[in-house]
Amino acid sequence: MGVTQEQIRAVLERLALPDGGTLVSRDMLRALRIEGGKVSFVIEAPSPEIAKLMEPLRKAAEAAVLSLEGVEKVSAALTAHAPQQPAPSLKVGGHPKPQAEPLKPAGVKRILAVASGKGGVGKSTVSSNLAVALAKQGRKVGLLDADIYGPSQPRMMGAKGRPASPDGKTIEPLHAHGVTLMSIGFMLEEGKAVVWRGPMLMGALQQMLGQVNWGELDVLIVDLPPGTGDVQLTLCTKAELSGAIVVSTPQDVALLDARKAMDMFSTLKTPVLGLIENMSFFTCPDCGGEHHIFGHGGVAAEAEALGLPLLGALPIDLETRLAGDSGTPVAAGEGPMARAYARIAEGLIGGGMA
Ligand SMILES: Nc1ncnc2c1ncn2[C@@H]1O[C@H](COP(=O)(O)OP(=O)(O)OP(=O)(O)O)[C@@H](O)[C@H]1O
C-alpha cells in the first residue's frame, strides 16, 4: 500500500516553524496530492516576504516526506497567502495537471513562437535578445520559456526565484530587462532533470499560458524546445499563434531539421513569418576576415526557395555567448549585436508582426 495523506501530515507535524507551530497546525499546507510514489503539495506563507524566508523549511518538508516508505519523489512549492481569498487548489510547483484554461491569455495581442529543428542553434539566445530588442523599442513584451526539458531563459535573462501565486490561482511572472518572463525553470530545481509524461507537459504549458498574469502585451514570444514534439503540437493546435520564426545555422544538418520544423508548422497551419540565420559567420579579430564556419548562404537560399523573409543573419559572437551566460542579453547593450537585434525587431514591427 502506498503512503497516505495522514502519514504525510504526521511527518510534517514534526517540523516546527521558527515562530511556533507547524505547517499543519498553522494551516499552511495546501493541494496535497499523491500519485503513486510521487507526492506534491503547496506551502502557503502568510506573505511573499515570509515565503522567501521559508525556503529552508520547504526543503526540510520535502526531505521529511521523502523519508517515508513508498515515496519516490516529492515536490513542494511555496506560495504567499492573500487575505480574503479562498484556499488555493493550484499546484504551483511539481508536475501540474492539465487545466481547462484557454491557451490565449486575454491581454496578449500576438503570440510568436521561436522554433528550431535542431538543438543548440541559438534559439533561446535569439528569443531572449529579440524580446529585449522589442522591449527597447517600446513594445510590451513577454517571454515564455516553453523549453520544458532544458529551460535556459532564467539564466539568459538573469532572473531567479519562484513566481508567487498570491491568490492561489494566478501565477505572477518575473520581470527582467523590460520583459515579462515566465519559465518552467522557475518552478524546478536547478540542475534537476525533468521526466514528464505528455499530459503533464500539456498541463505545464496550459498553466504557463492560462494562469500566468501576463497583463497587457503587444507580443508574447515563446521559446520552444527544439524539434517537432508534443509542446509544438499543443501550442500550434491549441494556442492562437500569430506565427513562428525558425532559427537555424547554415549547417546542412541544422537546415534539414529546420525544414522538418517548417513542414510541421505548415501542416498545423501556423504561418512561418521568416527565418533567422544564427552563427552565420565569424569575423576574425586578428585579420578581420569573415569565416563561414557552418557553411554559407544556406538559410538565405532556403528562405528564398520558400518565399519567406530572411529576418536576420547573426554572426558567431563571443559577446553574445558571454552575455547570455551572465544574464544580460547582448541586445540590452549598445554594441553591434544590439544593433543587429534592433534591426530584426524593427523589421518585425514594420511588418506588423510584433
Ligand atoms: N551568435 C552566437 N554567437 C556565439 N554564441 C552563441 C550564438 N548564439 C548562441 N550562442 C551560444 O550557443 C549556445 C547554445 O545557444 P542556445 O541555448 O540559445 O541554443 P538553443 O537552440 O536554444 O539550444 P537548446 O536546443 O538546448 O534549447 C549558448 O551557449 C549560447 O550562448
From TrEMBL:
InterPro entries named in the record:
FSCA_dom_sf, MIP18-like, Mrp-like_CS, Mrp/NBP35_ATP-bd, NUBPL-like, P-loop_NTPase, YlxH/NBP35
| Entry-linked PROSITE patterns | MRP
Q: Which GO terms describe its molecular function?
A: ATP binding
Q: Where does ATP bind?
A: 117-124
One Pfam family, short name: ParA
Keyword NADP belongs to the record: no
Disordered, as annotated region: 82-103
Q: Which residues form the MIP18 family-like domain?
A: 6-75
Asked whether the keyword Iron is assigned, the reply is yes
Q: Where are the transmembrane segments?
A: none
List UniProt keywords, sorted A-Z: ATP-binding, Hydrolase, Iron, Iron-sulfur, Metal-binding, Nucleotide-binding
| Quaternary assembly | Homodimer.
Q: HAMAP family attached here?
A: Mrp_NBP35
Its job: Binds and transfers iron-sulfur (Fe-S) clusters to target apoproteins. Can hydrolyze ATP.
Q: Which family does it belong to?
A: Belongs to the Mrp/NBP35 ATP-binding proteins family.
What is this protein identified as?
Iron-sulfur cluster carrier protein
Could you tell me which species this protein originates from? Leisingera daeponensis
